[in-house]
Design brief:
By secondary structure, the chain is an alpha+beta fold. It has one domain. Helix content is about 30%, strand content about 30%. The protein has a four-stranded antiparallel beta sheet, with no helix packed on it. The chain is flat. The mean pLDDT is about 90.
């Protein structure tokens, strides 16, 4: 994973998409003197649902649990071309199989 990659994360059913903006290597606070872990900062896109959820959680608990950095196993790199192809296939399926039944 590198700076500039498009990534996704799932937080309790919320699928989030964002861009990696920085990478830092450092020891894990739970395993000092062990291997260094990569930590990534992400600029999340259209992330209001997550922000509202974390705001509600903070209001209830008094603590801010919003993550500022993520370890690599919390993030998944995704290709813009793959996402575009999936959306196009979805739209084709709707047009061919559902048609006007899908319109309100």
């Amino acid at each position: 994973m590198k700076v500039g990659d498009l990534v996704w994360n799932n937080y309790h059913g919320l699928t989030r998409f964002g861009t990696v903006v920085s990478k830092k290597l450092r020891e894990d606070k739970w395993a000092p003197n062990a291997i260094q872990w990569a930590h990534y900062a992400v600029e999340w896109h259209d992330d209001e649902a997550y922000e509202e959820t974390m705001g509600w959680r903070k209001k209830l608990s008094g603590n801010d649990y919003t993550l500022k950095e993520y370890k690599p196993y919390h993030l998944n790199v995704v290709s813009k071309d793959k996402l575009k192809a999936i959306i196009e296939e979805h739209e084709k399926h709707l047009k061919e199989n559902i048609g006007e039944k899908n319109e309100l």
